[in-house]
Design brief:
With 83 residues, the chain is α+β, with helices and mostly antiparallel strands.
Length: 83
Amino acid sequence: KNLKPVILELGGKDPMVFCDDVKIEDVIPWAMRGCFQNSGQNCCGVERLFVYSSIHDEFVDKIVPRVKSLRQGVPLATCGHSG
């Protein structure tokens, strides 16, 4: 009697899971793309990274420098320009 029809886009928590047998160098680009593609404004973008504790430190050591190197802005704005 009191129910109203609604449509909600609630998104998800879209995890990526990295098991201890993964080749870290091979999955770092996928993790980066999943998290940062389209500045994170992606309905199926990755929101959580679950990493086995046995590879956690190596994973963090390899992904943190790549995350820190990200910059906002037009990607081609500085291509081919000096100064």
